Amino acid sequence: MEMDIHRQFQQYFGKEYQLAAAPGRVNLIGEHTDYNQGFVLPAAIDKNIWLAMAPNNENHLSVRALEYREEYTFSLDDMHPVKGWPTYLLGMIYMTMPEHRLPEGMDVVVTGNVPVGAGMSSSAALCSAFGLALNEYFHLGLSRLELALAGQKTEHQFANLQCGIMDQFASLHGKSGHLIKLDCRNLEYEYIPFDFPDIRIILVNSMVSHSLASSEYNLRRQQCDAGVAVLSKYDSNIHSLRDVRPELLEAHQSELDGTVYKRCRFIIGENQRLLTGCDFLKQQDIDAFGQLMYVSHDGLSMDYEVSCPESDFLVSTIKEMKGVKGARQMGGGFGGCTITLVEKDSADTFISGIQSSYERNYGRIPDCYSTIISEGAHIVQPMAEQ
Ligand code: GLA
Asked: What is the Å distance from ligand 1's center to 11 Cα?
């Protein structure tokens, strides 16, 4: 695969270039918990953004995606948010480079197979790949954690999404065959083996692009903060929903706005499910883990209200299918992908079955991706002379 990518970039650049790759991610359980200082359980997958860059001897930054015809050019002194995907590149320059600028003009070209708008974090992969390439080329000496934080700030300040740290962290810290149990309060993490050779992780794309996602996402964050503002009056140790016990929430339900209460209930429960789920994984109990995924989905749909009819249809249909252990909508929400754990021997019939059920209902065949848990972002070495 990377050989083909090299060939494409070589055709484009015709000279040496710096190449980096960064993956998208799945998240097994623990949704919207990251910005509530809770736990998440993501993993990097075998879908990547590849980014190549080389100096262009001009005084500008030029960016293009191999898949698109357009090319965008930016003055080096002009790193501010723009519409569309180049904003992530401008943001990463702003967040990582001394004086927020490139010292010389560069050509940047990207390609990849992380579906956009599918809840697999293509934007975090783009930031991570560029961050790694800048770090290497300009000898910035930034750690992977610093690059992940730069990616998160880029989302906040250049894309107006007040996201947590999960996606960037997973893209940069992924480890083949392992989930990352990340504590978003102190950013300590533990790799948990996903050691289930008979299970496949299959994503079914609802084909609904989450256009509402950023405004509703930011609103969810505010609603969680509103809950903390009330509940922290009763315990000075409460700094986030991570710190709230279910009993305390129930005791003060009447003081919370009904919507805020539901949001808090979901987050507090989801964090608990993640901890229980990790124990199940360590005990090799994939059936019990799968059941928690359904509970997570119900909460996402009814309490956190970030699902959509298509995702609800997928999960309820998938639940009845042969060989399925668990399923739920994954990522920020309002569409994107549903993640399903399926027995290996049922994987093919699962994919054809869910594609035809969905098509019967919605008139479109959903894309399905069988994913492999893979290494995180890396510098790709130049191709040997041929
Ligand atoms: C998006 C955000 C993450 C996280 C998820 C929901 O992917 O970028 O930080 O909040 O949504 O779990």
From this structure: 36
**Model pLDDT for residues 318-358, shown as the tens digit of each residue:** 999 999 999 999 999 999 999 999 999 999 999 999 999 99
Q: How far is the CA of 130 from the centre of ligand 1 (A)?
A: 20
Q: For residues 168 and 211, which has the higher predicted lDDT (pLDDT)?
A: 168
Query: Is 167 annotated in the active site?
Result: yes
Q: Does this model's pTM top 0.85?
A: yes
Q: Which is catalytic among the residues 34, 107, 167, 312?
A: 167
Contacts of 258 (CB under 8 A, 6+ apart): none
Show the ligand 1 pocket: residues with CB < 6 angstroms: 31-32, 34-35, 121, 163-164, 166-167, 331-332
Q: How many CB atoms sit inside 10 A of residue 77's CB?
A: 11
Kindly report which listed range (33-37, 147-151, 212-216) carries the lowest average pLDDT score.
212-216
Give percent above pLDDT 90 in the chain: 90
Atom number in ligand 1 closest to CA 165? 9
The mean pLDDT of 96-115, rounded to a whole number, is: 96
User: Ligand 1 centre from 359 Cα, in Å?
Assistant: 28
Q: What is the mean pLDDT of residues 29-54?
A: 98
Distance CA 254, CA 304 (A): 18
Average pLDDT, the chain: 95
For residues 338 and 355, the answer to whether their CB atoms sit within 8 Å is: no
Burial of 79: CB neighbours in 10 Å, binned 0-12, 13-18, 19+: buried
Name the residue of 25, 33, 34, 274 whose CB sits within 8 Å of the most ligand 1 atoms, as the mutation to test its pocket: 34
Nearest CA to ligand 1 atom 10: 32
Spatial neighbors of 54 by CB under 8 A, at least 6 apart, are 13, 15, 16, 17, 18, 106, 107
- The span from the CA of 333 to the CA of 9, in Å, is 34
